[in-house]
Design brief:
By secondary structure, the protein is mostly helical. It has two helices and no strands. Helix content is about 25%, strand content about 0%.
Length: about 60
C-alpha cells in the first residue's frame, strides 16, 4: 500500500540511512527537491525499503 507524500517525507527525515538518488540524466530543480523515501536509493520501485527501515520508523510517528 502506498503511503502519503507527507509520510514518506517524515520517514526520510528520521531515517539514518537516507541516501538521495542522483539523477544525472535530468535537469531538475534541485532546490525544490525535498527529502523523501521516494528519492532515496534504498527505496525500491515496488515501494518498499530495501533496508527494512520504513516500518520501524512509521511505527514511531
Amino acid at each position: 500500500m502506498r503511503s502519503s507524500t507527507e509520510v514518506y517525507a517524515e520517514v526520510a527525515e528520521r531515517c539514518h540511512a537516507y541516501d538521495k538518488k542522483e539523477r544525472k540524466d535530468c535537469f531538475c530543480n534541485v532546490a525544490g527537491d525535498t527529502k523523501s523515501c521516494l528519492n532515496c536509493r534504498h527505496f525500491a520501485d515496488d515501494e518498499h525499503c530495501r533496508l527494512d527501515l520504513y516500518d520501524p520508523i512509521v511505527e514511531k510517528l
